[in-house]
Amino acid sequence: MSPEIEHLISLQRTDREIQRLKAEVAELPRRVAVIEQKLAGTKAELEKARSAVKADEAARRKYETAITDLRQKISKYRDQSLEVKTNDQYKALMHEIQFAEQEIGANEDKILELMVNAEARDKQVKAAEAELKEEAAEIEKEKNIARERTAQDEKELAEWAAKRDASRAAVDPDLLRHYDRVSKFRGSGLAEVLDQRCSGCQVALRPQMYNEVRSGKLLYCDSCQRVLYYDPSKEAPVPEAEKNTRRRHHPKIDASQAWYYRNEYLDSGEVFLSFVNASGAAARRIFDAASGRKLGDTLLREGGYRQAFPEDIQESIRLNGNWSDAEQEEWGDELPSSVLDALQRDLDLARAEAASHHHKEAAHAPSTVAS
């Protein structure tokens, strides 16, 4: 993995941590506000309960005043009944007295009802007061936690900001501008390649791009423009037992198809060479060993590939490969990742085999003893 990618990974990790801390700092006041809102509701309930008690007390006083007034009327009517001259006048006064007594009874019933409700009202007030006290203590506790958490977050933010500055300073300015621009719109400017896909937008990569990213080349996703990177440490390792017991299949010498590896080929560096014999001629294709990209055009010469391209197979390693000329034509300008992986695995086995053979020869070589 290139240093630029490592710096970008560090930068993106830092940016995400800063975002998390800022979100937490912003969330703490909201949490306190929710509790304060609940506290306000409890206060309102308490005021409502107290107002109900006051209203009941006022109503009771009103009914008691009404009873006093009615009793005074009854007393007045009784005094008047002693002075009336006719029976009709007497009956009228008795009727008024009876009506007043009924009103007194109704008011007394209402007072009794209020007295019964007073106990429940008192319980409501006490419960609301207790809840208010509990919530007030809770909100004070939350405020203290919020203050402590905010102070800690602010401290960590300052530390992460310093790390961010250091990471940004280590990244190429043009690459940094691209990262910032994509991060602004996408939320992140860097994406790991997993299962031959950009993990940011889940779009599959072209084989050549995938191979180039795996080789460490700095590329942008065609779909989301995030900077792509590949972590080779996440590749599934070959079990040790399989390494020790695995034997390499040797390609046939007289096969009509052949693959070779050269660690230096003209100005192209490491390459894979494909040869196919057909109809008295040989076709040669050259692919970059790291990216799988095809180099140049397919070259045709008369005769078998050994006679037609002797200079190409010198100082090379013969590899296993059995893909037809038609298949290779379908590949176009790059090797499929499965083919590139197969060639690289076989190259590793061939190198290991050569190293083992060299060690065995050295072990069996006669030693010279000075006389």
Radius of gyration: 47 Å
Helical fraction equals 55-70%
Write the CATH architecture name of the largest domain: Orthogonal Bundle
CATH class of the largest domain: Mainly Alpha
Number of beta-strand segments? 9
- Distance N terminus to C terminus? 54 Å
Structurally, how many domains make up the residues?
3
Following the backbone from N to C, one meets helices and strands in this order, namely HHHEEHEEHEEEEHEHH
Q: Outline the low-pLDDT stretches.
A: none
How many H/I helices?
A: 8
Question: Could you describe the 3D structure shown?
Answer:
The protein is of the alpha+beta class and 371 residues long. The protein has three domains: 10-168, Orthogonal Bundle (Helix Hairpins), CATH 1.10.287.1490; 175-233, no CATH class; 240-363, no CATH class. It is built from eight helices and nine strands. It has helices spanning 3-81, 87-169, 173-186, 207-214, 240-245, 305-308, 325-331, 337-364, and strands at residues 190-194, 197-198, 219-220, 227-229, 257-262, 271-278, 281-288, 299-302, 317-319. The protein has a five-stranded antiparallel β-sheet with strand order 8-7-6-5-9. Strands 2-1-4-3 form a four-stranded mixed β-sheet. Strand 5 and strand 6 form a beta hairpin. It starts with a helix and ends in a 7-residue tail after the last helix. The mean pLDDT is 85.
